[in-house]
Write the structure tokens for this entry.
Amino acid sequence: MRTIRHVAVNVFKECVRDKVLYNLVAFASLLIAVSYLLGQLTAGQDVKIVKDLGLAAIAIFGLLISVFIGIGLVWKEVERRSIYGLLSKPIRRSEFIIGKYAGLALTLFVNVAVMTVVFYAVLAYLNTQFPEVVRTAWPAPATDPGMLRAIVLIFVELLLVTAIALFFSTFSSPFLSAALTCGLWVIGHFNADLRNFEAVVESRPAALLARGLYYILPNFAAFDIKNQVVHALPVPAGYVVTTALYGCVYIALLITGAVAIFSRRDFK
Amino acid sequence: MKARVVALCVVLMGGVVGLQALHEHRGGPPASTSTNLLYVRSPEAMRRLALSYDALLADTYWIRAVQHFGETRRSTESTNRYDLLFPLLDLTVSLDPYFNVPYQFGAIFLAEEPPGGPGRPDLAIALLEKGLKAQPEKWEFAQAIGFVHYWSRQDYPEAAAWFAKAARFPNAPNWMAPLAATTLAVGGSRESSRQLWRQVAESEDAGDWFRREAGRRLQQLDAMDQIDQLQRAVSSYAARTGRQASGWGELNQAGYLRGNPVDPTGVPYRIDAGVVGLDRQSRLNPLPTAGVKIGLPQ
Amino acid sequence: MDAISTESLTKHYHVGFWRPRPYLALDGLSLSVRQGEVFGFLGPNGAGKTTTLKLLMQLIYPTSGRAEILGKPVGDVGVKRRIGYLPENPYFYDHLTAEELLEYFAGLFGYSGQDRRRRIEMLLDEVGIGPERRLQLRKFSKGMLQRVGIAQSLINDPEVVFFDEPMSGLDPLGRREIRHLILKLRDRGCTVFFSSHVLSDAETLCSRVAVLAGGRLVAAGDLSELLAFQVRGWEIVVVGLTDSDLEKLKTDGVVTHAIPLGPQRFALDLPLTVEPARLATSLTAQGVQLVSINPVRETLEDFFVRQIGTAPKDRGLGTVAR
């Protein structure tokens, strides 16, 4: 456990030194610039747009970090041979993989947390820009804490994407890993279409295959409740919990697979 | 060791599938509204934001406009208002003024009465006038403005004036001048309407959906003729026997017609309390308000 | 108990994508290294030295055979606490400073606090990393990385250290420092197992060597017993030798070959029968300055060629089986 934490902290340090957190500056600038400009372009919908944009930006910035750092986590150590020195130390390969994953998870957590704070700060400022009578017409207050449910699921989704990237990077090149990870992400968002596939096709094997993929491929669409929280529609707590649980079980599966593959690998 | 890893993977995979099944069992993600919202309504601002991609963006807005139209038309809500149709089309043609389909689309569907459209002939005309400003040589736009006046406003003198204007365009087809004359003389007659739509249905450069729409209008006109004929038969049966026919069977027995009459799309006509009409299932619904719009022979 | 022992350790690689052919990187290596000795693992490039070290670190898994360190199978985390490893051309994390790298590794051993800091200071001093220890490793030269690599291998005061080409990338001064360091480790009772393709490294350091060629062990034992490596003659470099004196030396049979290096400056080859010290004294008396004296030996490559007839090339399994 101590070893895992130690590796994780080093990953976090690497991310900080490699200026990954600069994306937070980009995020904050984007949100502030947009909320300033919106007043010029639209009438009255500013708060909704900032909410939409903020949640989407948290998801996309996080996704970029997950994929592009996730695929390099293990690959970089193997390619640059820094893993030679590390694995001769008292550390198991499983601890190495889990530690690497935990480190990126920590980086993502800090990122998402800071982005959330900036997000609410911009909304709180916008809130002061509207008279009481306009505010009462909104479906939800500007700084609606209910949006945290969407952010929690975004975070779990990012953890799942990271696990996929890590899994692929234990045995393939970064380019291929990135392509496969992004591919799964896109498919995972069209998951419901796989479910409806059988209504469209005649062939039974094709329908069964689609059904099987629907159950096996990661269902990223389930994690997306951005629209619901922005309109303050009901999202049961049970839904958030089961979806998060689904993500965690899937992550455990991917990490187990990554460890199994990585443990048998030769570093030529 | 290996067996344990495999067993763990199987258990976890089972968990994944189980939770996914639970997700489906509960009916997927909580209901969400896909509220249509147009973030940027000012074409001027949009053109600046588009950088050098305005044509591409115009395509995007065109697709959005068509989708918005289709979704609203299919939706069963009573409040479908086509609110975004004009702004979307307006953005599209502002970004790409030579994109002709949106003008034609707007000319037809912006003017259409609810539930088939927002019932805004004024906006249809505004869009077409914008088109004429951008492409002053397009006689089609002038013709389409006349069309809107003719069809939606039943303002036949105004329609004739626009058709006459269109006829003066250097490249206008030679049937344009007679069209203007007919409109002025027998404005609102079914025959002039038919002539108008036939031009569209046979024109080369109109889009598929436009030709299809023209075909539907022609079928509506045919159906109206057929309904008139059938109505005459039903009325004379009623006059002769002193009671209303309850179905086509009675008329068949009485020798007024043979078989069950169907409309041009193949759906049988109905008789309701002595009045002949389209079946509710027919694609031709709703017919233009007879008498007012098309000028039934009185 | 031996510090290191291997038994028929074998590793095949598969080369070629469409039709993988096995390539024999290491063929049945049996070896034992006693505790407390400095053991040289010699062989030309591509002989299988690095493969052996990677097998011992369990960076790769053997096709067959067995390897133990300190009586435990390789890969045992308990054993890893007691060993150190310097990879060939070591490379570490760009974003860390030398100090931070050592802190990271020390943390893996559970060291912390004042004790850890003192140990890191001492090790970096020992390998000759000065104030640049606070720079990120991306700014380090090859030789400096080599020194950091040696420092990190010693972070846990190991009982056995494995050095893969410890002298590569170092200047002559650096080589001397590392030599001293290895001898110091030996004096502390640490077993040192190092690989090299340079014979002189082994001569100055080890009691015993193993020689590897083409993935196979070709010789092992005490260095002095391996007669193959005896001196074949001497080479001396002198300044101030006149041409007439050189001719005289040649006709006397004292010098077999002379290479002019500059005006009155020559490199002279002496046969084994000539005692270099005596010649040096007489030349000095004639006013000739002596620049250097070096023994001329058989190189490892000469040795292999003689040992197995030809330099090994084909290492496909089929060839080996025949």
